[in-house]
Each structure stands twice: as C-alpha cells, then as structure tokens.
C-alpha cells in the first residue's frame, strides 16, 4: 500500500548523480519546451486573466512572472507561469492506459521554488525528475478519470513533491505536505466533459499553485493527514481505489512522456499528422471531401471524439482544441495545425464549420489494445464526392516516446513558438542555458525570461 512515508523516502532518495544521462537530457528538453510554450502564450486572454488576479493577490515577491519584470510569491508565480505553459495545449503528456496527464504542469512550481531558494540547476533537475516520476506512477497505477476526477488530482501531489524537494523539506515535512495536498485538492472531471470552458486550461495551474502552497505550509510547521492514502475515508477509498506505486529514484518515467508536434490535444497527434500527410500526398481538395472517418482508440473517442459530450458544436478555443472533428477538418484545410487554428474568426469560418460536420469518429477495439500496448494508432479514410477513398494508418507520431524529438527539433519548436518576442541571440542564450542547466543556477535562467 502506498503511503506518505514511502513517497517521502522516494523524494529524499533522488539525487542528480543517480540520474542517467538520457533522463537528464529529457528533463532539460521538458524545461526548454515548457519555457517556449509559456513565452508563446504571453498576452493571451486567459493567462492575462490569471495575471490580473495574481497582481491583486501578490503584487510582489521573490519569483518572476515569466516574460516580464513583475514578481510575485511562490504560489502566485506558480499559478501564472503554469497557466502560460498549459494554455496553448502544446505541452507534453504521459501516456498511460487509463490517464493522460501533462507532467510539464509541474515545471513552473519547481522553478518558482528554485528561484526563491536560489537553487542550483542540478537541484532543479532533481526536483523536476521527482515530479515527473510521481505523476507518471500515479497515472499508470492510480487512474482517476473513470471515477469522475480530473487528472490534475495527480498533479497537486506531484507538484507538492517536486516543490518540497527543491525547498529542502525533511521526511516529516514532506509527509505533511503531501497529506495536505492530497486531502484538499481533488478536482472533478466535469472540467473536460460536455461544454468545455477556459478552466480546462487553468485547472492544472491551480493544482500546481496549491502544491507549492502545501509544501510551504509544511515547511512552516503545518501538520497534515499522513495517512491520506490508506486512512479511513482516505484517497484510496474515495478517489482512486486501491493502488501501488513504485517510483524509481532514477526518474525514468520522463522517458515515457511525449512532446507535441501540433497545437492539439494529446490523443489527436497521430490523427493530425496522418491527415496532413494524406492531404499533401494526394493533393486532396477540402471542398471535394464528402466524409472523413477516423478509427481510433477508446480514450480518444471518449475525450475528444464525442464520448463525453458532442464535439461538433465548436465556437471557442477551449471547444476547438478538444474536438477531433474540428482539428481534423482544420488540419486538412490548412495542411497544418498551429495556434492560428484557434483564432475565433478561424474557428467560425464556414469552410471548417462545414467540413467538421462530415467527420465521423469511431472507436476500434483493436486500436484500443494497441494504444494500451504503447502505440498511438489512427486509421483515417477520406472520401471524395467522386467516390474515391484515400487511407492512411499511423501507429505513432513525431514526438511519441517511440519516436522522440531530438534536441534540434525541440530547439526548432522553441524558436518557432517564441517567434520575434526575443531576438535570435537571446533565444540562443536561453537554449544554451537550459542545455547546460546542471552547471548553472536557477536564477541564471530566470533572468533571461524578462522582456528580453
């Protein structure tokens, strides 16, 4: 039975020198990817709403609000910076059969704590490794989606552990922090069912914020229920059901995370890559398409294919990036799927609104079995008015753990999404600092995220 005692022991056992080179490299890739996505989300409406609230709650503090010279407390900087990394839906994902969380939701909490503590880059990577490992273990062994809870219910635990690591909590403080976080922050799945709204992209920021706050409370002497998992009316009884996790101090779960190539929900990546390839190869005219059929796995059908409410009524970004019909239609028309696809005017244009109604998404049991075995399969048929049908089959996509992005691809993604906000030299300096993070300090990195 998993306990706060065992989790605390794991957190304290993680050391930079015990991380394989491949793990260190993937952790640094996740940092660079997260920073790029966050910078790309600056000035977006929903993060600005969070920023305005942060200013009211915490107009000053030890931590940067990324992309500016403004500062805030650890929890409020975590809230805003995580909202940035999450809002575009371009973040990483951990692929487990019953749950697909986004471990990069933990990065900003660890960095905020590291900035406040003056942590080294090595300490930062240790703590991020802790968070990724716990997030992955919970997703794989204690999925909560089918029990009505959102995956950020896991995030608050992993963020607490990562924050506690970099804040230097001792064994009992870690137990208390995890107990506080896991008791008080269990998010409902309604966030991602039926009508989807902007909270979908901010729920993880709230969870990460509360994880950092729980770690701070424990450091200052607050006690929490250290039997939170196994106790009467505890987490296993109410939230998850019985489970066992066995986190590895080598933090290898990061190797099982994927990096998104397209600005789209995780389960759409193979299908989008496939439809773009097919459209380009066959030079398909969208105006001549009579039907698009996608055969996919159970999770994709459930979350973005209509299993938790219609995905054909699409008018906002929050609805569009969780609608397979919209994403496939837009990708076929544009031969790409970038953040531009979620502009309100683009979403409401007649071409994509008409085509999305001709998209049929079906679950295939064999594809579900293949997904549970580690693939992300998709079979797409595009039929035209003249009676021709074109097919493409995918087992994974560029960025899947079986086909991970190389450093040059992560750098290219960073360069593209940051755009002209920073100059070429400044972007190169950020990339170089992350690439050499174990030899740098957290504050070296944060100083580069001012206006540039």
TrEMBL record:
Family that this chain belongs to: Belongs to the PrpD family.
Name the record gives this protein: 2-methylcitrate dehydratase
Residues of the MmgE/PrpD N-terminal domain: 6-246
Gene3D superfamilies reported for this sequence: 2-methylcitrate dehydratase PrpD (3.30.1330.120)
InterPro entries assigned to the protein according to its UniProt record, in alphabetical order: MmgE/PrpD_sf, MmgE/PrpD_sf_1, MmgE/PrpD_sf_2, MmgE_PrpD, MmgE_PrpD_C, MmgE_PrpD_N
Membrane-spanning ranges: none
Source organism of the structure: Halalkalicoccus paucihalophilus
UniProt-recorded Gene Ontology molecular function terms: lyase activity
Domain (MmgE/PrpD C-terminal): residue spans on this chain: 262-435
């Amino acid at each position: 039975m998993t306990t706060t005692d065992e989790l605390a022991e794991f957190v304290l056992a993680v050391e930079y020198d015990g991380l394989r080179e491949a793990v260190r490299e993937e952790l640094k890739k996740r940092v660079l990817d997260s920073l790029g996505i966050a910078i790309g989300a600056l000035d977006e409406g929903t993060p600005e709403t969070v920023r305005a609230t942060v200013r009211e709650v915490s107009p000053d503090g030890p931590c940067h609000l990324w992309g500016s010279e403004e500062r805030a407390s650890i929890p409020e900087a975590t809230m805003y910076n995580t909202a940035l990394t999450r809002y575009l839906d371009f973040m990483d994902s951990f692929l487990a059969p019953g749950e697909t969380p986004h471990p990069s939701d933990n990065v900003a909490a660890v960095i905020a704590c590291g900035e406040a503590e003056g942590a080294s880059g090595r300490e930062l990577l240790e703590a991020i490794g802790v968070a990724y490992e716990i997030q992955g273990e919970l997703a794989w062994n204690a999925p909560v989606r089918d029990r009505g809870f959102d995956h950020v219910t896991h995030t608050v635990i992993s963020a607490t552990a990562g924050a506690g690591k970099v804040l230097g909590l001792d064994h009992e403080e870690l137990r208390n922090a995890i107990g506080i976080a896991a008791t008080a922050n269990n998010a409902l799945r309604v966030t991602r069912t039926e009508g989807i709204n902007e909270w979908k992209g901010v729920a993880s920021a709230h969870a990460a914020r509360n994880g950092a706050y729980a770690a701070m409370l424990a450091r200052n002497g607050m006690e929490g229920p250290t039997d939170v998992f196994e106790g009467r009316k505890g987490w296993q009884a109410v939230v998850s059901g019985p489970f066992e996790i066995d986190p590895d101090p080598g933090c290898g779960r990061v190797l099982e995370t994927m990096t998104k190539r397209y600005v789209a929900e995780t389960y759409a990546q193979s299908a989008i890559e496939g439809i773009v390839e097919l459209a380009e190869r066959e030079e398909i005219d969208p105006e001549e398409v009579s039907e698009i059929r996608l055969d996919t796995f159970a999770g994709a059908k459930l979350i973005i294919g209509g299993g938790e409410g219609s995905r054909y009524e699409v008018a906002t970004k929050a609805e569009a990036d969780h609608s397979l019909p919209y994403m496939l239609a837009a990708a076929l028309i544009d031969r790409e799927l970038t953040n531009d696809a979620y502009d309100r005017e683009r979403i409401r244009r007649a071409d994509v609104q008409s085509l999305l109604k001709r998209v049929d998404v079906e679950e295939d049991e064999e594809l579900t079995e293949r997904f549970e075995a580690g693939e992300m399969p998709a079979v797409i048929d595009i039929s035209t008015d003249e009676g021709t049908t074109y097919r493409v089959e995918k087992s994974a996509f560029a960025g899947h753990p079986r086909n991970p992005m190389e450093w040059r691809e992560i750098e290219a993604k960073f360069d593209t999404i940051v755009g002209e906000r920073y100059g070429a030299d400044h972007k190169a300096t950020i990339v170089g600092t992350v690439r050499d993070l174990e030899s740098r300090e957290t504050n070296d990195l944060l100083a580069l995220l001012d206006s540039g």
